[in-house]
Amino acid sequence: MLLNATQARALFTQALQDRFAVLAVNADSPSAVYDCLEAARQCSAPLIIETSLWQLQGRSFGAGDALLGLLRYLADVAALANSERFMAVPVIFHTDHIKGPQTLAILKAAIAGVSVSSGKSSLLLQASTISLDSSELTEEQNIETISELCRHAETLGVEVTLEMEAGVDDGLTSEEITRRLLGSVEKKYPGKIGLWAPGLGTQHGLSDKGYPTFSAEAVSRQRELAREITGHGIGLALHGSSGLDQESLRAAVREGVVKVNWSSESLLIRNQAAMEFFDSHRPQMNKKHPDWKKTVMDNGLQSFIAERYLPRVMERIKILGSDEKAGRLSLSGKL
């Protein structure tokens, strides 16, 4: 079931209360989206499917047109999440790493909803949660952009659940920065920030050495600071999780992380599986081989990848403690 903004916020609140985190996969293709939903279904877990600008503009979705990509991506996620097979899986659609001159246009469309037309009827599809990439913004620009999204939602009369980030690749975010960023938006638009993403000592990408600067204590401090600023519990989002060991991930969840982004390792697993497929099936790709057509069809490749990818997604879900949580959630807000 695709969640709306209110339901998504309720899910994060319960995750913080019960100390589990929801896996947020930056899914790069329709096949990856399906595989992640299937892993969540088998684990009876909630799931976040998130997209970055490069996915929206990529060949699988927008082919250079980010708004078309948003429409195609949302339509795909909604069709799957609301199907009979995946109806029991609480699914959040989240915008991630949106930056550049199109930022506001893309995110305002995600908040307002994009329309899928079919004959005389149309269906409006909205993102569940929203974030933007602040890595190239000043603090003032970060605050103003988030505030503009809040104003846009208020003008439309719709709910919005936002994730606000600090410099997640810049080490540990200081208390002063948290107060300036989170505090400024919360003062003007209370309750709109549903996730806080400070720097916790990790970085985007892969690291063979892990992240020795990661601090579970920093997670705890930021969780308590966010509670002080907002007046209520607010969970943290962890970026750059691909380089973290399992115990660090579990410690982050115990201290208040409720959303764990997973991209680089996910992409690498699928890429390595594809390489293995082509290496092991080269003889069958000869047009004289009786199985050549079955082999070269996309289904053959994607099924091979799925067999290797699903167990890794399921393992990640279980590390975060969200397995068997789907049927125990109390989500407020109508679809």
How would you describe the overall organization of this protein?
Helix 2 crosses helix 12 (298-319). With 335 residues, the protein is an alpha/beta fold. Helices cover 47% and strands 14% of the residues. The chain has an eight-stranded parallel beta barrel with strand order 1-2-3-6-7-8-9-10, surrounded by eight helices. The longest helix has 22 residues, at 298-319. The chain has helices spanning 5-18, 30-43, 53-56, 66-81, 103-112, 139-156, 175-188, 216-230, 246-255, 264-280, 292-296, 298-319, and strands at residues 22-26, 47-51, 91-95, 114-118, 121-125, 129-131, 162-165, 193-197, 235-238, 257-262.
Strand order of the largest sheet: 1-2-3-6-7-8-9-10
- Name the CATH class: Alpha Beta
Class inferred from helices and paired strands = alpha/beta
Please report the total strand number as a whole number: 10
Evaluate the radius of gyration. Answer: 20 Å
Corresponding CATH superfamily: Aldolase class I
Second-tier CATH architecture: Alpha-Beta Barrel
Percentage of helical residues? 40-55%
Provide a count of the helices: 12
| Domain module tally | 1
Shape: globular
CATH topology: TIM Barrel
What order do the helices and strands follow? HEHEHHEHEEEHEHEHEHEHHH
Spans of at least 5 consecutive residues whose pLDDT stays below 50 are none
The overall pLDDT average reads 94
Largest sheet: 8 strands, parallel, barrel
